[in-house]
Amino acid sequence: MTTTDSLISLVPVFSDTSWLVGLLMFAFVSSITPGPNNILLASSGARFGSRRTLGHAAGIWAGMVTLLSLAAIGIGALTAAAPDLVKALQILAALALLWTAVSMLRAAPSATKTEARPSDKPWSFWQGMGFQYLNPKALMMAMTAVAMTPLTTTPSPALVASMVVAFMLVSIPCTLLWVLVGAALRQTLSTPARQRAFNIVMATLLVATIPISILPAISAA
Q1: For the segment 63-79, what is each residue's pLDDT rounded down to a tens digit?
Q2: Contact in structure between 49 and 114 (CB atoms under 8 Å)
């Protein structure tokens, strides 16, 4: 298919933009609501500040772009053909979230303000990106976004790109908001007691995402 043919094929698709409106609404709701990514970003924003958390956030965005693209070319069929592999990855995700929650609880509060110890580091770009392949909510978001897009058996690259760009234009500001909310709490969390309470709340919320998004997926696999 030539570039011209690809663009021509999009004419009937974009003549009805109801699918695009639905996609944008889904991107907003799924990206703004609490989940493993958003809880981790808010916690990192509070501990390390928004600037040091941007690498983690960028990794999440890159991971979602690749997940959306892979889902569009048929990764869903591959995961359906290997349910045991999917279940193993989901178990790894649950263990990773539990380990992160324990790390939050064990983090020693500073004496005066919310500062991480020199040995503590925010998640890197690659850690944020790699976690998306273990995150059931991210996988669900990608699969649902693709299902809402009028893709054919051989997806048009232009249509796939349009779907990815539209989704990320909504998703990026939503996840960035969680970083900024966390960073805004740095001044509020000025005492060790407040920091400890914040860590307990965030660790509890993170663990709560496991039965909500991971355990049902494992049971269904």
Answers
A1: 999 999 988 887 555 55
A2: no
Residues of the chain with pLDDT under 70: 1-17, 75-87, 89-90, 93, 107-119, 151-155, 190-191, 211-221
Buried b vs exposed e over 39-48: b needs ≥16 C-beta within 10 Å?
A: bbbbbbbbbb
Tokens, residue 4: 């011209």
Q: Residue with structure tokens 């011209």? A: 4
> Which H or E run contains 190?
none
What is the spatial distance between Cα 73 and Cα 66, in angstroms, rounded to a whole number? 11
Contact call for residues 68 and 145 (beta carbons, < 8 A): yes
What is the residue type of 16?
A: D
What tokens appear for 124 in the block?
Answer: 């890197």
Q: Cα(122)–Cα(44) distance, rounded to whole angstroms?
A: 6
Q: What is the dihedral of CA 46, 134, 141, 63, to 10 degrees?
A: 70
Q: Is the CB of residue 40 less than 8 Å from the CB of residue 123?
A: yes
Q: Which residue from 106, 132, 131, 112 is spatially nearest to 194, judged by alpha carbons? A: 112
Give the separation between CA 71 and CA 76, rounded to whole angstroms: 6
